[in-house]
Amino acid sequence: MRHNISVLLILLSTVGYLSSCAMKPMAIEGATATSNPTGPANAAAIAAGNPAHDVTAEEPAQFRVSDLTENKTVESEELEIIPTEINAHVEKWINYFQGRGRPHMERYLLRSTRYEALMKKVLRDNKLPEDLFYIALIESGFSPQAFSHASAVGYWQFIRGTGKRYKLKIDQLVDERRDPVLSTQAASEYFKDLYGMFNSWYLSMAAYNVGEGRVLKVTKKYKTNDFWELIRNKKALPRETDDYVPKYIAAKLIAKNPDKYGFDGIDYMAPIEFDHVTVNQPVNLRVMAEKMNYNYEDFKALNPKFKGEIAPLDSANTLGLRIPAGSFEVAMKAAQDSFVDKAEYVADSDEIQTYKIKRGDTFASVARKFRTNVAYLRDINDFPRKRKLKLGQNIFVPDRTPLKEKRPELAAAVSGGSKNFYIVQPGDSLASIAEKYSVTVLELKKINRLSRKSKVRSGSKLVIPGEVKQEQTKNDTSKKTLYADKKANKKVAKSSRKQRKIATAKEVASSKE
Questions:
Q1: What SS3 class is residue 499?
Q2: Which of 130, 213, 255, 377 has the fewest CB atoms within 10 Å, i.e. the most exposed one?
């Protein structure tokens, strides 16, 4: 499996490439995990393309953080902490995160609390160290939409082949690599297999990054199972893999004690909590969110595995959905009112259009044409890396239709150069904003595509209808004209006074003569 932490800028900034300092190691690498299988059997299973475990990921009927302290019964021996060695490599990363990489780390930390309790529960249930949670921090920054140029996707950055090997569903409508529960379960199974192969958490992490085959090869070649010994030889592993374990240790140290490393005052996100409903027909998630009077983006954040608006049935002809905690009855009725006859891809926010492949088209040429990249094209079309384009085939591409054609009302609002937006402030309502700009609530809702029950949130951006801008421009022009007139009048008055003084002086001179 090839993981790459260079996540695309449109979804997430990269974790970064770090700087340096020095210290001797303070711990010995090599924890044990009694529940893992033995190495040779595991290696053969992975080499054959099969996990050494039955991968089962049960969707919890509900999740509450308050329930965790009451049910924490796993033996501490099975959750032995991953060793934490602090040396020059680790100090280098700590320095980076405290300096140039600070904005990235702050963003990842504030997101971390949304998923920490849920993901650590999955790791505990698999009898794995909870600290593996911080692998997701350096892989994706806890963004479900993160994907790399190598087409690795989601919190744990699985490529398609490894995701499917660990029973993650990946197709045109669903990508379970983006699901916090299912992807964490798959990562747990993968780490069990890797630890069974290497009996070393550091080598397991290196294999998670670069692939188990490469790590097996170099451990045999250099006759060592010591990660730090391996990275002393610059040719043993890729530079990214050399950095991977130190990066993980630095991120873990900071995340577990942010104040110590100068990351105080982080505005952490609330932990994810949810209930669960099951129905037997596909659902339009946007319609369902509106009928629940719940923000669509927040609803999709609970169910990030669905690529578009439509949630299809699974192989058992059922559909499980996470819903806001305590909303079972309302959500069940909303789901029933949102059934669709056909499960088909409906892109969010008019972001996708179809394109018919022409003679000479390649993935690279189509990507250039629509100002995107090959990895994104393969992702939205559910194409494996070896799939080739066919003449006459219709594929999905980013919608680059000019704004004036796609949304003329929005184009009118921002025409003329300067943007006419309003950032919602605490205490604002649609009514108060409409009154402020002398427009109607209906006009605001129409241009911003808000539903009848939509509410505005502090910090969100609203487009103000074009008429307001024109009126503001007229007012500005009137003010400028008035100012110019006043300025001109002052010049005339000043000139008149000067002329009167000259005339008076001439009269005085004449009288003296």
A1: helix
A2: 213
Measured between alpha carbons, how far is residue 128 from residues 238, 249, 323, 373 in Å? 27, 17, 28, 36
Indicate if the alpha-carbon torsion angle 351, 356, 358, 360 is positive or negative: positive
* Angle, in degrees to the nearest 10, between helices 180-198 and 39-47: 120
User: Does residue 330 come out as left (phi exceeding 0), alpha (psi in the -120 to 50 range) or beta?
Assistant: alpha
Q: Quick count: other Cβ atoms within 10 Å of Cβ 59?
A: 14
Q: Tell me what percent of the chain is helix, strand and coil, each rounded to the nearest 5.
A: 50, 10, 45
CA angle 148, 153, 155 (to 5 degrees): 110
Q: Tokens 């490469």: give the residue.
A: 214
Token digits for 130?
């909870």
Burial class (CB in 10 A: 0-12, 13-18, 19+), 259: exposed
297 is catalytic: no
> Residue 512 and residue 506: Cα distance in Å, rounded?
10
> 93 near 2, Cβ under 8 Å?
no
Write out the H or E segment, with its range, that includes residue 398. Answer: strand 394-398
| Strand ranges, E, within 213-305 | 274-279, 283-284
**Strand positions, DSSP E, 2-94:** 62-63
Residues 436 and 423: their CA atoms lie apart, in Å, by: 13
CA distance 488 to 495: 11
Global pTM exceeds 0.85: no
Q: At 437, is the secondary structure helix, strand, or coil?
A: coil
Please compute, for residue 409, the number of CA atoms within 13 A of its CA located in the half-sphere on the CB side.
10
Q: Which residues contact 485 (CB under 8 A, 6 or more apart)?
A: none
pLDDT tens-digit map of 291-338: 998 888 889 999 999 998 999 999 999 999 999 999 999 999 999 999
Q: Which residues contact 455 (CB under 8 A, 6 or more apart)?
A: 429, 430
Q: pLDDT by residue (tens digit) across 110-143? A: 899 999 999 999 999 999 999 999 999 999 999 8
Task: Out of 85, 91, 116, 139, pick the active-site residue.
Answer: 139
Q: Does residue 460 contact residue 454 with C-beta atoms inside 8 Å?
A: no
CB 127 within 8 A of CB 33: yes
